[in-house]
């Protein structure tokens, strides 16, 4: 099945999700959903944070407002699925992925905004890639849900990169490549615990 926007995501990212991570996810479906809910909530929080920090940028405000609403809707949808499956939402320690991607973010403007937007775009792209990688292996309800998320996640990825180019006043490919190299490392290297954006966990049950 052809999914609009997925080819673009695959061309953008430096690697596909390792098969071992997919096996980790299928072995820990409750944990996958709990952390997925956390990811949606964090994505909304990131968008709102940008809206508070950059109040003068009307286009950013409009795009991030829409993104935050969609991410919170996704959060609600994950919680609904969890409720039907008697999965309790609880606190989880975050994976190293997002923090690892943010390490090279510059502290001075406009570099700070440019880099923050690039990181947001890469996280959205990786989420989209993982939804697509998981969907064929899931039950009908989750498969349809994850496939349905792909369109909005792909748009979020494009929105973030567009805003990054606008903030930089031109090409951002050099910065994008730096952060993509980190994505590749974080996705491929083994992790100690499974999370939605973790690397593969060799000893997971």
TrEMBL record:
Which Gene3D superfamilies does this chain map to? 1.20.1260.10
InterPro entries given in the database record: Ferritin-like, Ferritin-like_SF, tRNA-Hydrxlase_MiaE
Q: Where is the signal peptide?
A: none
Q: Which SUPFAM superfamilies does the record cross-reference, listed alphabetically?
A: Ferritin-like (SSF47240)
Per the record, the GO terms for biological process are:
tRNA modification
Q: Which GO terms describe its molecular function?
A: tRNA 2-(methylsulfanyl)-N(6)-isopentenyladenosine(37) hydroxylase activity
Q: Which residues form a coiled coil?
A: none
Origin superkingdom: Bacteria
Record-linked PANTHER family: TRNA 2-(METHYLSULFANYL)-N(6)-ISOPENTENYLADENOSINE(37) HYDROXYLASE (PTHR42637:SF1), TRNA-(MS[2]IO[6]A)-HYDROXYLASE (PTHR42637)
**Name the record gives this protein:** tRNA-(Ms[2]io[6]A)-hydroxylase
**Source species, please?**
Tamilnaduibacter salinus
Which lineage?
Bacteria, Pseudomonadati, Pseudomonadota, Gammaproteobacteria, Pseudomonadales
